[in-house]
Amino acid sequence: MGMNNKEDLDAMIAKTPARIGVGRSGTRPKTDSWLKFRFDHAAAVDAVYGEVSDILLKRLDLFKVKTKADDKEVYLRRPDYGRKLSDEAKRVIEAKCIKAPTVQIIISDGLSAKAIEENVEDVYLSFKQSLAVAGLDTGTPFYIEKGRVAVMDDIGEILGPEVIVLLIGERPGLVSAESLSAYICYKPRLGTIEAERMVISNIHKGGIPPVEAGAHLGTVIQKILKYQASGMSLVKKEHEEEKREKLG
User: Fold this and answer.
1) Which pLDDT value is given to residue 206?
2) What's the pLDDT score for residue 177?
3) What are phi and psi of 98, to 5 degrees?
4) Residue 133 in contact with residue 72, Cβ under 8 Å?
């Protein structure tokens, strides 16, 4: 495609939020492009360093615990600290949560508090409704401050659920600073490998609609419980069943 073909360029721009065809003035970006870049970069920084409001947590009836990352700088420098619950968190979870639920829902700011503020309520309520329709119990949901994905392993050890679903803020980029992910794992425990986890990502108003994502999560959970597996183990079991059906 020649860059002078404006119709083709406009069609390409319409299909992606990426920065293409922004042009230059000499060796520098155009002023409006540069200002937009600075604005989006600032939004990404704010998302990382922001905090989820207690008002939202109260509205969703979620109590709050912390990981071993006691401040944001430690959290960013030491991802391993975000994968482990603080000793106090373990005591609180042990005291407040229903043991051995079918589905344990947890929420964490991760790398974007804004993702939680903008999306989690719709995802969470839609997901809980889909689980209720399927007759699946959800234990005691709660919020983890400065969490990483593998923190679900610590929770699996304490509560022993069948499935854990973690709604967590994604690393913000220059296209969206409010994208949410849902990580799912069947019986996570210490030593669980990453291939056993599943993820539905890009949940936000410009990606997968939050309400739609919550409903889809309910369907995914039912499949995980049917096969008693997640991640690559689930893929393998589904493939084996398809093979048996073809062989009659």
Assistant:
1) 85
2) 72
3) -65, 135
4) no
Three-class DSSP category at 13: helix
Cβ-Cβ contacts under 8 Å for 236 (sequence gap 6 or more): 229
Residue found under tokens 């969206």: 176
Rounded to whole angstroms, what are the CA distances from 81 to 59, 66, 85, 101, 189?
28, 10, 8, 26, 17
CA atoms within 13 A on the CB side of 87: 0
- Longest Cα–Cα distance of the chain, Å, equals 68
Q: How many CB atoms lie within 10 A of CB 246?
A: 7
User: Half-sphere exposure (CA, 13 Å, Cβ side) for 244?
Assistant: 6
- Contact by Cβ (8 Å): 179, 112: yes
Residue at 126: amino acid letter: S
Residue 76's pLDDT is 86
Partners of 203 in the beta sheet? Answer: 180, 208
The one-letter amino acid at 139: G
Q: Which residues of the chain have pLDDT under 70?
A: 1-4, 9-10, 12-26, 28-49, 172-176
Q: Two tokens at 123?
A: 């995802």
Listed residue (147, 163, 155) closest to 108, CA to CA: 147
Residue 17's pLDDT is 60
Report yes or no: 58 and 143 within 8 Å, Cβ to Cβ. no
* Nearest-angstrom CA–CA distance, 46 and 41: 9
Strand order in the sheet with 197-203: 63-66, 142-145, 103-108, 163-169, 180-186, 197-203
Find the angle CA(32)-CA(38)-CA(41) to the nearest 5 degrees: 140
For 229, other C-beta atoms within 10 Å of its C-beta total 18
